Amino acid sequence: MKQNKLETVGLRKVYPGTVALDNFSVTYEGGKVHAIIGKNGSGKSTLIKIISGAIQPTSGILRVNDTDMKMETPLDAFQQGIATVYQELSLIPDLTVAENILLGRLSYKKNSIIPQIDWKASYLRAQQVLDGMKVNIPIDSPVKYLSVGQQQVIEIAKAMSFNPSVLMLDEPTSALAQHEVKSLFNVIRTLKQKGVGILYISHRLQELNEIADTVTVIRDGLFVGKKEMGHVTPEGIVHMMFGKVEQKTRPSDLKIQDETILEVKGLTRGQHFKDINFKVMKGEILGIAGMLGSGRSELLRSVFGADSFDSGNIIFNGQLVQAPTPSLMKSLGMGLTPENRKEEGLVQVLSTNENLCLASLYKMGGRAGYINKKMEEPYIHYPIEKLQAKVPRRDLPVSSLSGGNQQKIVVGNWLNTNPCLMVYDEPSRGIDVQAKQQIFQIMWDLSREGISSLVVSSELEELLEICHRILIMRQGRIVDEVFPEDLTIEKIYTMCMEV
Predict the structure, then answer these.
(1) For the domain 260-496, what is the CATH code?
(2) Which of 96, 112, 283, 499 could be cross-linked to 234 through a Cys-Cys bond (beta carbons 3.0 to 4.6 Å apart)?
(3) pLDDT higher than threshold 80 for residue 443
(4) Do residues 152 and 89 make contact, with C-beta atoms less than 8 angstroms apart?
């Protein structure tokens, strides 16, 4: 078996005002699965991007099989034996399995005046890749007809067609059902037996004992340690991830009122979530904690009516909502700030003024259906002043604003509808520390006014800071209800990770 090896020596990556990775040195042997974990913002993504050639380090050395490498592009990394499979799949749905595996590298017929694809040879090459992975998927099937788990395997097959020494898998099981996870692990074990060094990035501690040989922990851009899986406990891993962390708490004057705003009973949607039951009280900030793939965002979308559900009841403001839609839930007093604000929360080419009015256009139209510009003004001034958004020119596209100010515009747009419940999906994603605190302050101010909040965040420590109560969600089910004052950061991560 070929003995592959990847080494990083003093890797450092500096961005203006931020050290993303600092003096990171580690060795990964071939024929093993090396788990890499750390909380969001720890430096995992930076490390992956450097190894994959997507970005260059400020300083340090990357070695493959004892040879120093300089990778300026992902293509350079491929040529040096490093392949990466990202969390977001990049397959072309209408192309076949074989075409996706050999994308841009199909075989052509020899001695042909006009270039012609040699389909027989191409399909044979693709089949050999799948056979080498012990995978049985029809190579002539369009990938759009495959399950998510099968598509994930095809992504790996595409990477393996380059015959890499090192394969990096970024959250490979986050969207997979349990039986698909088992199939994927079988593929990984086959590659491991071939001597491939596998870097496995995951938030799911419960998977590591089953698939990983070692675990590396990154914290604040620093290498904390690399340990054999047999020599470390899940609790020990979580402690390595966080060390000593100051836990902040919400203001003490935020009181929950004795009135139910939202009640969810037995809500179920396919493989996404099952038998969900909870209540949100007036003025309460309720958090939902869980890892990627736990069903958190899917639950919020179904409650808001953006996605349908199979069974269960939603009672909002005392009214049973039989078939929720975003329009109906908005009219009843619910607002949603979606996870992807750029695509679902804002219209980037429109101005700040226009984005602040999108959810309230029905209030501004005259009898003929024209927008009354005079009526727009209160809907623009009030949220900008209330949220302290920095908007140099309101007539410029909202895309010109920072991430934090864009998020404030999303919130302001929904506050203009006079909601009694605001639903936040990843409200602090992609914004700086100061902007995060301002978003949290908005939630607290709304709580004082009796406006409730339902919050999902991957930054679980944020939920401890802002919420009255937290629901723990795993594999599509709510498995526990906890209170921030009874928890540590280590404890809540442990509960979510199924250790």
Answers:
(1) 3.40.50.300
(2) 499
(3) yes
(4) yes
pLDDT at 498 over 80: no
Distance in angstroms (rounded) separating the CA atoms of residues 83 and 75:
9
Per-residue pLDDT tens digits for 48-63: 989 999 899 999 999 9
Tokens of 407: 């998020």
Mean pLDDT of 451-475: 90
Domain 5-242 has CATH 3.40.50.300: yes
For residue 239, give both structure tokens: 């402690």
260-284, pLDDT tens digit by residue? 999 999 999 998 899 999 999 999 9
Q: Where are the domains of the chain?
A: 5-242, 260-496
pLDDT of residue 483: 93
Q: Which residues pair with 83 in a beta bridge?
A: 167
pTM here?
Answer: 0.62
